[in-house]
Amino acid sequence: MYPLALAPTDVPIESKVRLLQEIDTYARSRDPRIAQVMASLACEERQLMIAASDGTWVADVQPLVILRVEVIAAAAGRREAASQGAGGRIALAELTDPAAWRKVVDEAVRMALVNLDSVSCPAGTMDVVLAPGWSGVLLHEAVGHGLEGDFNRKKTSAFSDRIGQRVAAPGVTVVDDGTIASRRGSLNVDDEGTPTARNVLIEDGVLVGYMQDRLNARLMGMPATGNGRRQSYQHLPMPRMTNTFMLAGQEDPGDIVRSVKSGLYAASFGGGQVDITSGKFVFTVNEAYRIEDGKLGAPVKGATLIGNGPDALQRVSRVGNDLKLDSGVGTCGKDGQGVPVGVGLPTVRVDGLTVGGTGG
Amino acid sequence: MASAESSRDVVAFALARARAAGAYQAEVALSRGEAFDARVRTNEIDFVKQSREQSLGVRVYVGGRGGLSAAAARTSDLSRDVVARTAADAVALARATVPDACAGLPDGGFATDAPDLELFAPGDRPFEPDSRIAAARAMEGAAHAFDPRISDSEGSQAHSGFGEIAYGNSAGFFGEYASARHTIFAESLAKSDGVAMQRDAWYSSARSWGALDSAASVGRRAAERALRRLGARRVPTCEVPVVFDPTTAPSLLRQLAGCASGYAIYRGASFLAGRLGQTIASPAVTIVDDARLRGGLGSRPFDGDGLPTRRNVLVDRGRLASYVLDTYAARKLGLRSTGNAVRGGGASPGNLWLEPGAKTPEEIIASTPRGLYVTDLIGQGFNPVTGDYSRGATGMWIENGELAFPVEEITIASNFGQMLRDIDAIGSDLIWFGATAAPTLRVARMTVAGS
């Protein structure tokens, strides 16, 4: 799923250092308001062998690279930061290609400059349009964690015993797919040796499946789904997500924005968190615009959006035709263990999400 | 953890190999640890886990034009050939990095005292695993006995961990100390007809097993907190005073310490950059960092640079009195290290607390006609560069000076700089959560976003 001619860890250190220096110079050259640049590159090659008393005996070599660029823009007494990244189970050459890393830098610079002009984000309940891509963090938090087998076996999830029930609007299909070539969340086999799969979690709005490791699958009398993952050999496996996304719908993204009379367009996102039991989840917006009469208005400051997992996806009123997966930068934390994951979403309109700003 | 070779020998060998490979300066940290965990869920053992680990980190500096070039390498294999290769790898890496005028070991002033900070109680080791399982059972039992609405749970957990840290550098400093950490943690689930189920947790953590709160009291407290959430609802969007309880108030201190870290300051990545000596908070606010508290969970006799730890007043009656600095960040800023170096890079406080005030938490709530009492926060909605703050909150609504009903699915927002100035009440109830403690405190005005 991720064959490489040259392992990222075998690329000489000098060329990696040079790349970071070029990024620093380039970012500062983009605009005189760029006051600070922090760039990092991480390359990893994980070699693992899994043996179990049931005869399991598999090995895998898993490359992983990630480039992160954070810039701070300063003007007229204001400072704003923005960060962007790219990566995956790919050859380092895909990132050292100037066209690839410049895109990452340009985006970070653009976002920091936009935020220099941002005004207070409104507070309260409103209709929100989510840009495609990393906004899939909404799915990861709102429904993904709640569909992990361990919470459902213990019946501590807001989704416990809800298989077959409607948990999202018609037209909403959510999958967790560990088999997409070269993605950050992809694996040939999970950390218990089970082959990964494309698992449909929500089909046309109805909950159809959980994500399982071997232990919880056995205890629940369900099949293991290739979601047993661990941060390293020092940790115990748990049910975890791989690449989680919503399938594309029919609508033109522009039409979706035009459909909103007064609301928020959330363009770029930070991380999120969920309380599995109550189902309450949050995710942070780093770049957003007001929508007035179907048109994008002024940029507003970042804010936290909060919702209720079993309810939020029922408020999805429009699904765009532009599914996009994120650029390969996600890490999911659970019980102190971090694992690389992917997310994705088409442009989506969610009615009545609570936006946590300070403005009117 | 007993090993044939002493930590001092391993560190000395690694230092010698780094110098032999061409390092101008070198420092080596060796940590060894052992941990035991037991989790019980509704009277069944969920898991019992035992682990040992060791890690040797070598950081080297090689000479270059205009400064020293730094790099680090790490291994968990302490055999001589692997340690030698790790040291040589670090030197090879350093040769590829850019020289930095601020890099290098401290110019002196290494720790010479070795105070016993009571980080480890010798009587705690060895221990009977059954005693930990029994504690986990007692938490579960107490939670379930507390109220019939307490049912399934994620489980109650007991942890005992022991560690040894040794650090030495090519300037001749060597120090080592042993530490331990014991934690008992209960998470309860409350279920009641007609309303959504709720969870909450409570824990106790200490350097000695005997200093922990009783397992039964931790279980009851978790149950009490989960029950209090049943029937939680949203409130309309409004601007009100927000009271942070002693479990949520410490997050504000950790944010402040992050923004006062020398690294954030010299990068201009903090709203506190350039504010040293200025008033940044209400005059009621005094925040202290001290890594030498006896038995403190953030205590350490020397820092990651080998410098003695000490007491630092970060905020003195509202004035930003100190940044949080290690040697490197201090040089970047033209200041002196505050003894806050952390191995692996960065500067962070030891034990950090907000000096308590005179009012009881009950008095603070009673003096709040209408507002929000926050008992849990979720999300990372804090921007250290601008101070913009927006996080998901759970808690109780305050009406006429009384806790009226539970609330959830709301956010609280303001700017952190404004919040620090808006602190208008600080409680007397200082409770340690790990290495941080802040009493109940009230921020005069925040935006609550809800229905």
Helical element count of chain A?
Answer: 8
Helix content of chain B: 10-25%
Structural class of chain B: alpha+beta
Poorly predicted regions of chain A are: none
Oligomer: heterodimer
Number of strands of chain B: 18
- Continuous helix count of chain B: 9
Distance between the termini of chain A: 49 Å
N-to-C series of helices and strands of chain A: HEEEHHEHHEEEHEEEHEEEEHEEEEE
Summarize the topology.
The complex is a heterodimer of chains A (360) and B (451).
Chain A: H1 13-30, E1 34-51, E2 57-75, E3 78-88, H2 93-96, H3 98-116, E4 123-130, H4 137-144, H5 149-153, E5 174-177, E6 198-203, E7 206-207, H6 214-220, E8 228-229, E9 238-239, E10 243-246, H7 253-258, E11 262-274, E12 280-292, E13 295-300, E14 303-308, H8 309-312, E15 316-319, E16 324-325, E17 330-334, E18 337-345, E19 348-356
Parallel strand pairs in A: 4-11, 10-18
Antiparallel strand pairs in A: 1-2, 2-3, 4-19, 5-6, 5-10, 6-7, 8-9, 11-12, 12-13, 12-14, 14-19, 15-19, 16-18, 17-18
Helix pairs in contact in A: 1-3
Chain B: H1 7-20, E1 25-41, E2 44-64, E3 67-75, H2 80-96, H3 129-146, E4 155-169, E5 174-192, E6 195-206, H4 215-229, E7 238-244, H5 249-260, H6 262-266, E8 287-290, E9 311-316, E10 319-320, H7 327-333, E11 351-354, H8 361-366, E12 370-378, E13 388-399, E14 402-415, H9 416-421, E15 423-426, E16 432-433, E17 436-437, E18 441-449
Parallel strand pairs in B: 7-12, 11-17
Antiparallel strand pairs in B: 1-2, 1-4, 2-3, 4-5, 5-6, 7-18, 8-9, 8-11, 9-10, 12-13, 13-14, 14-18, 15-18, 16-17
Helix pairs in contact in B: 1-2, 3-4
